[in-house]
Design goal:
Blueprint lengths: L2 H7 L6 H31 L5 H21 L3 H16 L7 H28 L17
Helix pairs in contact: 2-3, 2-5, 3-4, 4-5
Keywords: Membrane, Transmembrane, Transmembrane helix
Organism: Ornithinimicrobium tianjinense
Pfam family, one: DUF4233
Length: 143
């Protein structure tokens, strides 16, 4: 196998729209998970438990991972971390069962954003130019 075939077999980084949609999804997920962490903390506190701070730290760490991953989605590793964020959000339902709903909603949104982004990127690359610039009419072309 020569170097050219090895280079073409390597996975390509995500396209521009895939990265943008994935990042927006992860930023929104960061907010939802962070607010879930606050709910888990205060709910335990209101019930007189002693694991509220642990809940805040654990679920807050998932929110922080989502935020960091939003900055890394331009790479293949960022997309893998994005899937890890989905799994960890679902796992946070062990501490706060309502997080299962958040995990399902954002898991579907994550999958849809990756799929739509790849479709848009493929269409843009097939058209020859990612985003053509509009043309300005000359004064004699105006109506």
């Amino acid at each position: 196998m020569d170097d050219t075939s090895a280079a073409s077999a390597a996975p390509r980084p995500p396209g521009r729209m895939t990265s943008r949609l994935a990042a927006v999804t992860l930023v929104a997920q960061t907010l939802a998970v962070f607010f879930g962490a606050l709910v888990a903390w205060q709910l335990d506190r209101a019930q007189g438990g002693d694991s509220g701070v642990r809940n805040l730290v654990v679920v807050g760490a998932v929110a922080l991972l989502c935020l960091v991953t939003a900055g890394l989605v331009r790479t293949r590793a960022g997309l893998v971390l994005g899937w890890a964020c989905q799994v960890l959000t679902l796992a946070s339902a062990l501490l706060l069962p309502a997080m299962a709903v958040v995990a399902i909603l954002f898991g579907v949104l994550w999958w849809a954003s990756l799929r739509a982004g790849r479709t848009i990127d493929a269409a843009a690359s097939g058209a020859g130019a990612a985003y053509p610039a509009p043309t300005d009419p000359t004064p004699d072309q105006e109506d």
